[in-house]
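Example 9 (inverse folding). The structure is encoded as follows.
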């Protein structure tokens, strides 16, 4: 087994959401806290990170939107996006195990020359994800069933897939839910880390952020609690195994 740690990068300014997101990712990956380092990009610049020091890197979600006009972005958001773009470029060049989720998929899509827009946003809910033929055959995503429920909540999504990306999964409301570039870089629109309980707690934090009417928080919580979401966390567990295998091979 590799002794290299993993790195989790968060970009949530809401402090009450940060710890639970880290714990959700750690639990889903199946690694101990001493093997999952954490950098809050909204607090600390990424700096000159050496990706080879890690077995793999996971990027979490954020209320930031890459489609916000540059003039409307806070300087912290601009720095976060520049850091993530630089990380993505390094991982792409090295074909390094990197998984970007939700907000991160938008950053990667733009780095690769694809298009991000607001046509395929999805309210906070559970939706059915369907693997493509390439997804079924993929060494990481293929560990999931051909159809499964996942938790989403996003205002923007990939509208034109980058030329070099392989589409691995879609939903009815959002055609690009997972894609891969090269053999090591993956991006998901849905949240693979959260249980329904985690997502209900996150909805409480973000009830005034426009993902759903704040007055419907109770109803949203009830719908989320009733959903059967059992598979997505396996994606992060498989990512950890996948990264370990690549590191030791």
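The amino acid assigned to each position is listed next.
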């Amino acid at each position: 087994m590799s002794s290299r740690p993993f790195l989790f990068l968060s970009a949530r300014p809401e402090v009450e959401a940060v710890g639970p997101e880290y714990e959700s990712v750690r639990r889903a990956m199946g690694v101990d806290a001493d093997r999952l380092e954490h950098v809050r990009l909204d607090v600390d610049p990424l700096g000159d990170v050496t990706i080879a020091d890690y077995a793999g890197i996971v990027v979490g979600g954020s209320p930031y939107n890459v489609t916000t006009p540059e003039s409307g972005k806070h300087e912290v958001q601009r720095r976060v996006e520049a850091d993530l773009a630089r990380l993505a470029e390094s991982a792409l060049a090295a074909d390094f195990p990197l998984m970007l989720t939700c907000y991160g998929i938008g950053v990667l899509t733009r780095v690769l020359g694809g298009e991000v827009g607001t046509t395929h946003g999805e309210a906070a809910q559970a939706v059915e994800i369907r693997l493509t033929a390439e997804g079924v055959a993929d060494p990481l995503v293929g560990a999931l069933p051909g159809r499964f429920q996942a938790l989403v909540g996003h205002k923007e999504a990939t509208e034109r897939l980058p030329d070099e990306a392989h589409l691995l999964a879609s939903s009815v409301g959002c055609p690009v839910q997972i894609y891969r570039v090269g053999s090591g870089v993956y991006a998901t629109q849905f949240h693979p880390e959260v249980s329904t309980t985690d997502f209900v707690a996150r909805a409480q934090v973000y009830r005034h952020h426009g993902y759903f009417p704040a007055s419907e928080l109770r109803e949203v919580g009830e719908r989320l609690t009733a959903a059967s979401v059992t598979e997505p966390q396996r994606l992060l567990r498989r990512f950890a195994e996948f990264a370990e295998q690549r590191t030791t091979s």
